[in-house]
Amino acid sequence: MKKYFQILFFVLIISFRAAADEGMWLPLLLGQQVYSDMVKKGLKLTPQQLYDINKPSLKDAIVIFGGGCTGEIVSPQGLIFTNHHCGYDAIASASTVEKNYLKDGFYARNRSEEIPTNLSVQFLLRIEDVTREVMDSLKDLKGAERIRKQNEVLAAINRRMSDASKSIETRVSALFKGNQFLAFVYQRYYDVRLVGTPPESVGKFGGDTDNWEWPRHTGDFAIFRVYTKPDGSPAKRDEPIEGNVPLKPKWFLPVSLKPLKEGDFTMIWGYPGSTNRYETSMGIKLATEINNPTLVKLRDMRLKYMFDEMKKDPAVRLKLASDYASVANYWKFYDGETKQLLKYDVYGQKKAFEDKFIAWAKGKPEYENLFKDWEKIYAAWRPYAKHRVYINEGIFGSSLLSFAASLISLERALVKPGVSQADVKKELDAADKQRADFLKEAHLPSDMNIVASVLKMYYEDVDNEQHPIGFYSSIKDKYGSLQDESTYKKFATDLFKNTFLLDDARWNDFLKKPDAVQLQSDPAFATASAFFTNYNSKYQPLFQQFSANNTDLGRVYLKGIMEMEPAKAKMMYPDATFTMRVSYGSVKPYRPRDAVFYDYVTTSRGLLEKYKPGDYEFDLPERQIELIRKKDFGQYMDPVRKDLVIGFITTNDITGGNSGSPVLNGRGELIGLAFDGNYEALSHKLSFDKDLNRTICVDVRYVLWCIDKLGGASHIIRELKIVK
Hints:
724 residues; alpha+beta; Thrombin, subunit H; eleven-stranded antiparallel sheet; 28 helices; 47% helix
């Protein structure tokens, strides 16, 4: 055990560069080698200016924005910059057909016009290493028993290090596949208000066509402000916000108007969501052959039916906009990931290294049978993998069936002996709230088409032996051939017509006299319950067993790699776990394929070249066209190109969760916002490509131009610290 901790300490504290600009480094544990390399490439800040728990530092300007993005504080009055797509749902929720901020844009002229949201932000207070405490409690436990105990220990640490009275929350993160554990302590602020957003045609310019693509011309930014109580303490959820004041931050980012040039140092701070860079060849094969293609196929179907309805009515387009964007984003991602994994034979690369590991492991009891055991658990799970994707992305990709499935806990309360009336009432209240939320977001015509289509797809793609018993035979008996599309359309039509879950009067009667038989006989609930119960009772336990064993073997494998190649261990960094990381790289063009060269910036000239009046994805505001054609760029014009720079690319290593992250120069000044990756490197969650990986960023000069020149909100510009 002592040797193990020495190895891990060596990995984290004396880390070398992994390869090229690969690496999402923990700011607490950059290590002298990494820091020295950053300085060599252009960093001008001290380690204490980057991360310090006792004094203000750069990390205090970086926030978790909402539930899955990053934001940055850019003024002494708590102003936040993040991506437009990170604030998309809040912007859409604040919009109406009459005041469509999503379509037309919005800038608050004063504090009283800033719009309250349901968002929160979290500031990282400190990071503590709790590895020894966790490891001492796990001893020699394995598999599901180890995971159960680990979860108990982490929950206990989280409780001990949290303080609800001060809005302090702690989340222990397992790093290096459970070989190290760090506690991240946050403080959450709930009073977050919308300050400004460009029109959707700017913030989402290029739409799905340009998503994950370079060259890019998207003004992907939005502006919010975090407020506190008058004494500076965090406002909590559901507390009155009257009298709250703008946050006085410990640190905020200056904004640079300096021109970019190739090779400039770039640093990105934020919260990358998840990577699995130490995945096995077996995991790559499962992803490329089953998981990803199935997910893409199901999301493709859902997008088709949503878009068909969105084209018909602006109100429907507004209602479905956020959900559609979310589904589309990872539809394209997983399609691209599969293609890149296959193109660069990541499976073969992983397999070659594993063969080397297997040869090294001979005669070492802890490791020599590891891959034989691993192959067995993959072989046992593989027949059911597609079923799991169909449940998550297909059956419960329907908003109605997803809501209906949420009522299963209510059903249990109604049929279980001894359940108190108070507990039943609690379930009913929760169900009523869930229904209200569901109806607010759902669009029933498109959802009905999704239900019809997914039931047919499930019937054709999932092994017949895994189907819910009797479900499809009952459809056949009443509606016709299971090979005919019309059969499922008739079934779905009847389901939506007859469910009391969509009928206010019948639903209210049910709340007054809840009856298990009525719920069980409802067609929507019966359908959702059939698939949920079938999967959860038979196949979810198999997945849990697979997942526990896979996690356990992954931990041992990574520990073995550290022992096999200490030199390689020096270059290892932990996978992303939605915890604060810093990556560094440079502004750099690239060549994606033979005879093709992509420059490192895009300009307003390219924006006009893509512009298509009235197009869903490539339209622009008339005023923007006018300003650009007049070259009215003001102080935001690039002095070298004599144009307005829209976006740029860097070699930084990021992933989902880094959306909205600040892109900083060597002095810690904001030069852009990260918002996407390039299609040629979409395998980045599983394998980093040192030659093709690029981070796509919106240039902060374009952000400021949109605020000032296009939006007329010069008062926001005056709030910033501008560096020229």
